[in-house]
């Protein structure tokens, strides 16, 4: 992974215009690599995210015995080894910056009788893994960490005879749910995950796409109960990856805050478990339309038309957080350019993302002249319809902080400087070039 530090500044820009397609969805790309590796035979993926998170996950799947090849532009081919068929890797699996790749792969390895070492960069080494290890140990995996509190690097010995469980994750996390379901593939009987709040359902959808039996039922006011029938024969099926709504949120918010802008974002996934930001922006007064709604690769997609809009502050309820968990940094930027207070509730999970995103988002705003407070787990932004800019933003190895800060600079009075944009490569290769193409001044 290219760790060269890449500082960049974003300056007040003229109207942003154009029609663009952001890269493939990260959640779906990573799942297609891991599930493809657990399938017997050939899976073809198109529209793959070719960012570093996907590349490190692809390398891990190779090290576990799958054949993973790039066959063309955004086109990949995987020859899977089947559920429980992973080979023991010779070297530690290095997931770089990717929490999702690492945690989902832990689930897949937990159901195989092999030993593997999991590692990652300094950001990933600081993130909590206990939340994943707890259920996987219940299923029969054994783990040994070098540091306290379940941090990487750690060694996992997968279960020879994994045990199905009924698990209720203590936090709303698609990663925990997915890890349990992937381990459950190798267990006999039914593995069940009960979520208090529904999280992104790409694992469930893709398991079904590959022929597994998965039942999804409502549970409580906002939750779901997901049941997987173990030991299925996963059958390869092609995957078409839609454009990533989390990546789309950066040019989208840029168009909302740069006067005169109008953009079309093509083929963006509109799975309701991912579009809390779109709902929130509409409540703030955003002109955001879905054109040509269709289904691609089993997911709803649409072309989004977004126009510069006068925004107003809103309250964002805590129960919406799972559907927009990665979008708060850029929502905070939109809130700065809105008139009035935006209160985003229930953001505890932001503290354990690629960085402490709650603190990093608040610092990004504050350093650029926006009044912001953290109250408990809430982020409160006092929008004045403008931002002074002129600040330096520390990205803390976090791609989304880097992109949010650059978006902010496109509409601020003075330039916004970002200390390091190298990590943008993890999720959005070509971000800087795309933003320049639509008229963003980045240098
Ligand atoms: C992801 C789940 C989310 C999200 C991450 C991707 C996934 O994490 O922040 O970027 O693909 O399952 P949590 O499930 O831990 O909230």
Distance between the first and last residues' Cα:
23 Å
Strand adjacency order, main sheet: 22-23-1-24
Radius of gyration: 21 Å
> What does the overall shape look like?
globular
**Total number of β-strand segments?**
24
Q: Helical stretch count?
A: 13
Structural class: alpha/beta
Average pLDDT for all residues: 97
What small-molecule ligands were found? shikimate-3-phosphate
SS strand fraction? 25-35%
Describe this structure as you would to a colleague:
With 443 residues, this protein is α/β, with parallel strands linked by helices. 28% of the residues lie in helices and 27% in strands. It contains 13 helices and 24 strands. It has helices at 26-37, 52-63, 99-110, 122-125, 130-138, 174-184, 202-209, 245-257, 276-283, 328-336, 357-366, 399-409, 431-437, and strands spanning 8-11, 17-20, 40-46, 67-72, 75-81, 93-94, 115-119, 142-145, 154-157, 166-167, 190-195, 214-219, 223-229, 239-240, 262-269, 287-296, 299-307, 315-316, 339-344, 371-375, 378-384, 392-393, 416-418, 441-442. The strands form six sheets. The chain has a four-stranded mixed sheet. Strands 2-15-17-16 form a four-stranded mixed sheet. The longest helix has 13 residues, at 245-257. The radius of gyration is 21 Å and the shape is globular. The two termini are 23 Å apart. The model has no long low-confidence stretch (mean pLDDT 97). Residues 27, 100, 173-175, 178, 199-200, 325-326, 349 line the site of shikimate-3-phosphate (S3P).
């Amino acid at each position: 992974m290219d760790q060269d530090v890449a500082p960049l500044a974003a300056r007040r820009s003229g109207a942003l215009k154009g029609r663009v397609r952001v890269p493939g969805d990260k959640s779906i790309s990573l799942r297609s690599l891991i599930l493809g590796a657990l399938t017997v035979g050939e899976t073809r993926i198109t529209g793959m995210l070719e960012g570093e998170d996907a590349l490190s996950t692809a390398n891990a799947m190779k090290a576990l015995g799958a054949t993973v090849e790039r066959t063309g532009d955004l086109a990949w081919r995987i020859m899977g080894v089947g559920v429980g068929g992973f080979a023991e890797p010779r070297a530690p699996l290095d997931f770089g910056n990717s929490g999702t790749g690492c945690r989902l792969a832990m689930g897949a390895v937990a159901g195989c009788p092999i030993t593997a070492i999991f590692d990652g960069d300094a950001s990933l080494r600081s993130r909590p893994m206990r939340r994943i290890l707890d259920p996987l140990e219940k299923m029969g995996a054994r783990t040994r960490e070098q540091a306290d509190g379940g941090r990487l690097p750690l060694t996992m010995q997968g279960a020879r005879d994994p045990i199905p469980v009924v698990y209720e994750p203590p936090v709303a996390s698609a990663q925990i749910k997915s890890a349990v379901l992937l381990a459950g593939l190798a267990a006999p009987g039914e593995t069940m995950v009960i979520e208090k709040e529904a999280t992104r359902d790409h694992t469930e959808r893709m398991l079904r796409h590959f022929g597994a039996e998965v039942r999804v039922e409502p549970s409580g006011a906002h939750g779901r109960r997901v049941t997987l029938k173990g030991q299925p024969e996963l059958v390869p099926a092609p995957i078409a990856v839609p454009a990533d709504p989390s990546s789309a949120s950066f040019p989208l918010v840029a168009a909302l805050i740069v006067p005169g802008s109008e953009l079309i974002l093509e083929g963006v996934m509109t799975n309701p478990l991912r579009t809390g930001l779109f709902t929130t922006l509409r409540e703030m007064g955003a002109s955001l339309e879905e054109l040509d709604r269709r289904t691609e690769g089993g997911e709803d997609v649409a072309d989004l038309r977004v126009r510069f809009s006068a925004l107003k502050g809103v309250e964002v309820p805590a129960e919406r957080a799972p559907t927009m968990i990665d979008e708060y940094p850029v929502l905070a930027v939109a809130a700065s350019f809105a008139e009035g207070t935006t209160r985003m509730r229930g953001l505890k999970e932001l503290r354990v993302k690629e960085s402490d995103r709650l603190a990093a988002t608040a610092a990004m705003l504050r350093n650029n002249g926006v009044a912001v407070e953290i109250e408990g787990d809430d982020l409160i932004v006092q929008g004045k319809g403008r931002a002074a800019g002129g600040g330096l933003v520390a990205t803390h190895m976090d791609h989304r902080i880097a992109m949010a800060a650059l978006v902010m600079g496109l509409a601020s009075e003075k330039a916004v400087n970002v200390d390091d944009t190298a990590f943008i490569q993890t999720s959005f290769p070509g971000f800087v070039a795309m933003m320049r193409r639509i008229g963003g001044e980045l240098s």
